[in-house]
Specification:
four-stranded antiparallel β-sheet, globular, 45% strand, mainly beta, 323 residues, 6% helix, Tachylectin-2, Chain A, five-stranded antiparallel β-sheet
């Protein structure tokens, strides 16, 4: 239900491969971790077209779909996203799905002004953290449609691309912050999800010269599986391109504070030439379901890379991990 996933490795022995049955619990656990680490970096696009498109002419989201968040609650997927009518400010809307691929936009859209939403389930309530002209705002809902907003921000400063994980009653926030004129992955913690304490320094180092994340980081997404933290993030760099673009990177951590980037980065590049996503990634979210990682990502065409974000046509695609 929640995005903080604690994986229980306790299947009956007869469901394991024969070789695994003779391994100790520690060895089986290690092999399971190794397999998940492999899967977390092996995504294959499953749809040639976006799974969520901009609205038709005159719709509230006919210009662009921007940052989004996905949550699976029981057997239903919820996708909240920032949508923009051409020439208008961003509003937050909702789409739902039974399979994560075929989506239906809510008739209640747009829900309210704002952008960059991230939603977790805490008890019986949805907690939405979102960007409200810079600071981090919080709203709660019992159905994901009607929201009750706190009157004051829960975290001051420029808080972009929030990602919140709830683990053993403690709240962890990773976000994109402006540090010395560079976008970096930063972090804050909270005991109640309302009062936050920032970590003093960015938690993810930028790449070296000519690497895919030489300039900026953005869009962190964190899952905890077992005792390990997994982070997917966007890295900004040239990497052989005329314009700087965002590609998908991956990192792991034992505590959520100190991260080690994968040597395989970037783990997913932009789409093939001529495809709808051959320009750049713009936002991502990941869920771990049925032993595989499922990735949804916002992308743009190559022709939009040099434009300002407000003029881009951003849509959402889908990929899944393959062994």
């Amino acid at each position: 239900m929640e995005k903080a996933i604690l994986l229980v490795l306790g299947a009956a022995l007869f469901t394991l491969p024969m070789a695994m049955q003779f391994l100790s619990a520690e060895d089986r656990g290690r092999r399971g971790r190794e397999e998940r680490l492999h899967l977390a970096q092996q995504f294959v696009r499953r749809q040639l077209d976006p799974v969520l498109r901009v609205g038709g002419p005159g719709a509230w989201d006919d210009g662009s779909l921007s940052c989004f968040t996905i949550l699976k609650d029981d057997n239903r997927f919820y996708l909240w996203y920032g949508g923009r009518m051409k020439g208008k400010p961003t509003n937050i809307g909702l789409a739902t799905s039974s399979d994560g691929i075929l989506w239906t936009k809510s008739e209640a859209n747009p829900l309210f002004p704002g952008g960059m939403p991230y939603v977790v389930k805490v008890g019986n309530l949805f907690y939405m953290y979102y960007n409200r002209r810079g600071p981090l705002a919080l709203a709660t809902s019992s159905d994901g449609v009607k929201w009750k907003h706190r009157k004051v921000p829960v975290l001051r400063g420029s808080i972009m691309d929030p990602c919140v994980l709830v683990d053993e009653g403690k709240f962890y926030l990773w976000y994109c912050g402006d540090v010395n004129k560079a976008y970096r992955v930063c972090m804050a913690t909270s005991d109640d999800g309302v009062n936050w304490t920032k970590v003093s320094e960015p938690v993810l180092p930028l790449g070296k010269k000519s690497e895919f994340d030489e300039f900026f980081h953005a869009g962190p997404v964190v899952l905890k599986i077992g005792e390990m933290y997994y982070m997917w993030f966007l890295g900004n760099g040239y990497a052989g391109t005329k314009h700087r673009v965002w590609r998908l990177g991956f990192a792991t951590s034992a505590d959520g504070f100190t991260w080690k980037k994968s040597k395989a980065n970037p783990i997913l590049d932009v789409g093939a030439p001529g495809s709808w996503d051959d320009g750049s990634f713009m936002s991502v979210d990941v869920l771990f379901i049925g032993g595989r990682f499922h990735l949804w990502y916002a992308g743009i065409k190559k022709e939009d890379v040099a434009k300002e974000e407000k003029d881009m046509t951003i849509e959402i695609g889908y990929a899944v991990s393959e062994s």
